[in-house]
Amino acid sequence: MNALPTVTLANFTPVCVDAAPFTLSGGSPTGGVYSGTGVSGDTFDPAAAGAGKHTITYTYTDSNGCVSSDTASIVVNALPTVTLADFTPVCVDAALFTLSGGSPTGGVYSGTGVSGDTFDPAAAGPGTHTITYTYTDGYGCINSASKDILVKPLPSATISTADPTVWCEGTTIDVTFTADAADSYQWLLAGSPIDGAINSTLSVSQPGDYSILATLNGCSASGNVITVSVISVPTVSIETSDPLDWCEGDQISVNLNANPSGGSAYQWKKNGANIEGATQPQLLVTEAGIYSVVATFAGGCNATSGDAEVKVHALPTVDIATDTIRIDTNQQHTLDAGPGFTSYLWSDSSTGQTLLVDGTILGEGIFEFWIRVTNEFGCSASDTAVVKIGNTNSLPENRVLNISIYPNPTDGEIKIRITGFIPGSYKMEIYNAIGNLIKKREVILQSYEVDIHENMERLPKGLYYIRFGSDKKNVVRKLILE
Asked: FRET pair for 390, CA 20 to 30 Å: which of 35, 188, 272, 416?
């Protein structure tokens, strides 16, 4: 007779009922078979076994066919019973608060807006959020419970109006406000409740800052502020950076601007009559006339500007000679542009009312002089005089001795055009303002019209005189060096 094999089975560690199935071990010798509640093959399923103390049997058969077994107990611990009380709905602007209601105490809260055991409605945002309470018992078994918490949005508390909010002094204010939908309303003026103003609309007749405290689903909020203001009727003026005085023959272009430009309507007038289509704060004027503008502001009040007169002035009349003036080489003649002009400019750059033509200085020749005068309105006109110096038969009528300097004023290099002189050898002399000879040179003319160049860069800035010709015939011109 063969002895039974010696079979042992090690003790099992307690497990939680929600533990995953696991492979049994600890039976000796190896190669035996496990059996018992929750056992399938060599796998134990705590959930299938259920909570409680279960016996696991290990049976071994040796090579002689002798069978023996051993047993050991395994404890399957039930999950702890965890509960979580219902949460009261909160408004999204509610303060952070400590979560409670989880049982047994000592568990952990989690979910959107949860940090530690604190819930932040603003961080969670409006909507329904799930809060989970998780608890671990002394056996390491974990269970949890969840409840939803409703975070309610705030009402928009937005107010609006289709009426004007800026009114003219002396007009009756009539503004009706409308609020977005809510359960209840309290209108505010400058942040303080208006007695009895608890509807969704409000009509007001006085200026101030209006808003509303709206309540929706137990949550309250105040929104935008609309200001109703009263303004004094503005003083309207016409502004322009363009001249109002123009000269005969000018193309008039004046931009008139109404100030202030924030009115609701404008009507421009010319000589007291409405200008068709001129209803903007700006007006481009191309004709002379007396212009004004009527501006309309909130509340329908009007203000009329003063006049802006665009004038066209006649050109000044100047006459320094009606025919060729003849003098001898030892005579003088004064050209007179006449009084009453604001500025004068002669062909020699002088700026007086008169110009002295000195035959002793100019010598024999036919000379052309011009004057440009300007009146108090900035309008200018010109006239020209021809002066013949010497024997009236010594020069042909159609040959005028002249030199023209370009540019004048200059910063150095100049071109001198010489006309009317008989080809031959002449002198060109440059004098400073006090009559000192600064420079001279000989010029050979090959024709009746010649251009020569002169560089003045090395001379001091100031007034100079250029004299060209011979001892008997010469022309003098002013030059300004800048």
From this structure: 416
Q: Among 120, 152, 184, give the residue marking a domain's end.
A: 152
CATH number at residue 470: 2.60.40.1930
Full-prediction pTM beyond 0.85? no
In angstroms, how far apart are the furthest CA atoms of the chain? 180
Q: Is residue 36 part of a domain?
A: yes
CATH of the domain at 253: 2.60.40.10
207, 352: one domain: no
At which residue do the structure tokens 């007291």 appear? 272
**Is 319 inside a domain boundary?**
no
As given in the structure block, the two tokens for residue 18 are: 């929600």
Q: What angle do CA 221, 223, 229 make, to 5 degrees?
A: 140
Tell how many helices (H) and how many strands (E) occur in the chain.
3, 49
| 8 A C-beta contact, residue 182 and residue 216 | yes
The total of structural domains in the chain comes to: 5
Domain assignment of residue 272, yes or no = yes
Report the C-alpha gap between 269 and 272 in whole angstroms.
5
H or E element: which one contains 47?
helix 46-49
Mean pLDDT by 10 residues, the chain (482 residues): 92 95 95 95 95 96 93 96 97 96 96 96 96 96 97 95 86 92 96 96 96 95 94 88 92 94 92 96 96 85 92 92 83 92 92 92 86 92 87 51 87 88 86 84 85 88 87 82 87
